[in-house]
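Subject: design request, 247 residues
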């Protein structure tokens, strides 16, 4: 099977200002991750013998369709499970991202996401609470089922990780993953989105994971919490690049 462009190639963009971003990294062995990827042209991206599956939380403001001005300051906490992969369908293998699911707590986003991204982005209940140096994040689905929760504190030290040898290596991993695939509205078809963002500095965190829905869902493979990182302040722009399917 090979990747082939499907219909709906019209490009559309969403822009915003990122206030805070939290990334919670879990490590998996490549063989285990390969069992979970949906198409043969996406393969695990191995770093130091491990693969990274991350839960990303974005606190965004001034969310608006580009090129319209952000006259209304729409704010949202959005989140997604982000997996580092290699796209092998082109002439050269390239680092990409596979998104299992996206969620957002702004009610208009689930209504317009099928039109903008040809994807569903369900509504989520989300909270980021700060108490001194401690931050608590909690996200749950509207049916009451938990999605993710964790507690963090600054570590004031280099990242402690089995996957990433330094915070710079982690930053490079994130920088390379600017194009993503996610399941679309149509069976066996994937929505491609490119992300353009300003460079930011990443800060390593100490973190305690309280709950991760994907860890529960993937309980037949070993998915180990590895590290956590925070970034602040950057412009973000997502551009829909069409649908791709297996043929």
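Subject: RE: design request

Done. Sequence follows.
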């Amino acid at each position: 099977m090979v990747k082939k462009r499907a219909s709906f190639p019209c490009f559309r963009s969403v822009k915003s200002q990122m206030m805070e971003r939290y990334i919670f990294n879990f490590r998996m062995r490549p063989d285990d991750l390969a069992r979970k990827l949906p198409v043969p042209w996406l393969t695990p991206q191995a770093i130091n013998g491990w693969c990274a599956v991350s839960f990303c939380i974005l606190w965004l403001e001034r969310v608006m369709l580009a090129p319209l001005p952000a006259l209304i300051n729409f704010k949202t906490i959005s989140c997604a499970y982000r997996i580092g992969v290699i796209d092998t369908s082109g002439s050269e293998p390239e680092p990409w991202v596979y998104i299992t699911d996206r969620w957002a707590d702004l009610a208009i986003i689930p209504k317009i996401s099928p039109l903008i991204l040809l994807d569903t982005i369900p509504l989520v209940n989300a909270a980021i609470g700060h108490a001194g140096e401690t931050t608590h994040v909690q996200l749950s689905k509207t049916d009451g089922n938990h999605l993710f929760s964790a507690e963090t504190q600054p570590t004031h030290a280099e990242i402690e990780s089995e996957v990433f040898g330094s915070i710079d290596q982690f930053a490079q991993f994130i920088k390379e993953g600017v194009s993503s695939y996610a399941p679309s509205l149509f069976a066996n078809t994937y929505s491609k989105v490119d992300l353009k963002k300003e460079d930011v500095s990443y800060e390593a965190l100490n973190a305690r994971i309280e709950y991760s829905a994907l860890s529960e869902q993937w309980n037949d493979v070993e998915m180990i919490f590895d590290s956590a990182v925070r970034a602040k302040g950057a412009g973000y722009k997502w551009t829909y690049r069409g649908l791709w399917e297996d043929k």
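The first helix runs from residue 30 to 34.
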